[in-house]
Amino acid sequence: MKVKVGIVGATGYAGTELVRLLMSHENAEIAAISSVSFEGKAISEVYPSYRFLVDLTCENADDVVEKSEVIFAALPHGLSQELAKTCFDKNKIFIDLGADFRLENEEDYKEWYKGEFIYKELHNSAVYALPELFRENIKGKTTIANPGCYTTGVPLAMAPAIKSDLVELHGIIADCKSGVTGAGRGLTQGSHYPELNEAFYPYKVATHRHTPEIEQTLSHLAGEKVTITFVPHLLPVNRGILSTCYLKLKNGVTKEQIRTAYEDFYKNEYFVRLLPDGQNANIHDVKYSNFCDVSLHIDERTGTLIAVSAIDNMVKGAAGQAIQNMNIVLGLDEKTGLTIVPPAF
Fold first, then answer.
1. 72, 79 in Cβ contact below 8 A?
2. Antiparallel, parallel or unpaired: β 304-311 and 241-248
3. What is the DSSP code string of 252-267?
4. Candidates 58, 87, 149, 292; catalytic one
5. Residues in a beta bridge with 7
6. Which of 27, 161, 190, 258 has the most CB atoms lying inside 10 A of its own CB?
7. At what angle do helices 150-163 and 255-266 cross, to 10 degrees?
8. Tens digit of pLDDT for each residue in 152-203?
9. What is the DSSP letter of 320?
């Protein structure tokens, strides 16, 4: 018996990735999809690549909830809380790809997203679901905050070093580059082709909304407050996030200790691939997949660990991770529906 899943916001980039991936999920059936912009249209009209494969018509969100047991919401921040409450009251699993349930502190949400927690009890019962770090917390929960792109790539690059107390917790820098799909399907000045093509630039320097979320995760790992310098850049490519993270090694920490800490931490994690010494994480090698590749580099002159991670921002940074979280909640093998091989070229 397949679980019936619904997708609210199915015609955005993250929503349509959910459609693409769930079509190959042996234990799930897409029961309904919704879209405000394209209600009444088949998704194959919006994305012709789905022609003859999936021709579901976009309905309204209420119909999606009624027809589904698991509801994915691929919506901008500020639009998920009411939907989450409806799902909670109906005892349905709600997986939010937006930011409404990611921050634990309401003051942080007010500062960075200019919103408030409408249902505080619901926020208290929600779980922040980065599987490789918080898997045990996810099991049995019904309101799931699915981390985004930078907030997945950066912590996975740093987690073993911080958790093992091998690096200093001050002066941490996350220098990140993202493909343009991270900006969503709506056109902006910065994502307009003539502006983006043959260009490369930082944006929202020291003001990006993912900053408190990354710090929240790293603080949980460290057991104390961690702050970082986070600078994202926009790449003229469709997909991928490369996170280059700089952490000061504690006195006496060796390259071998770092390597051992990462090998131990990720030894049972299928979706995190720790690369051999001398290799570099590359967004090309994870395209369309749920993998996170991590490469480690030591600057002996400055005593700096340079940890680099590469993910596909639409899969491990959005839809794929959401499906991984659904698998955990349902007690399925985490790899189900996610064994996509990245293209060789």
1. no
2. antiparallel
3. T--HHHHHHHHHHHHT
4. 149
5. 33, 72
6. 161
7. 120
8. 999 999 999 999 999 999 999 999 999 998 777 776 777 778 888 899 999 9
9. H
Rounded Cα distance, 162 and 218, in Å: 8
With a cut of 70, say whether residue 250 has pLDDT above it: yes
Enumerate long-range contacts of 250-255, CB under 8 Å, 24 or more apart: 250/165, 250/166, 250/167, 250/168, 253/166, 253/167, 255/298
Q: Which residue spans within 103-237 are E strands per DSSP?
A: 127-128, 143-145, 172-178, 201-202, 228-234
Confidence at residue 241, expressed as pLDDT on a 0 to 100 scale: 98
**Token representation of residue 95:** 């997986």
Read off the pLDDT of residues 92-127 as tens digits, 9 standing for 90 and up: 999 999 999 999 999 999 999 999 999 999 999 999
Structure tokens at 114: 């200019």
Look at residue 187 in the predicted model and tell me its pLDDT: 67
Any alpha helices (H) in 126-173, and if so which ranges?
A: 131-138, 150-163
pLDDT > 90: what percent of the chain? 92
Question: Whole-angstrom Cα distance, residue 243 to residue 167?
Answer: 18
Against a cut of 0.85, is the pTM above it?
A: yes
Angle between helices 150-163 and 211-222 (to 10 degrees): 20
CB neighbours (10 Å) of residue 161?
25
Domains (ranges, CATH) in the chain?
3-146+316-330 (3.40.50.720), 150-312 (3.30.360.10)
**Active site (annotated) includes residue 149:** yes
Which of 71-80, 92-101, 180-189, 329-338 is the least confident region? 180-189
Count of other CB atoms within 10 angstroms of residue 291: 23
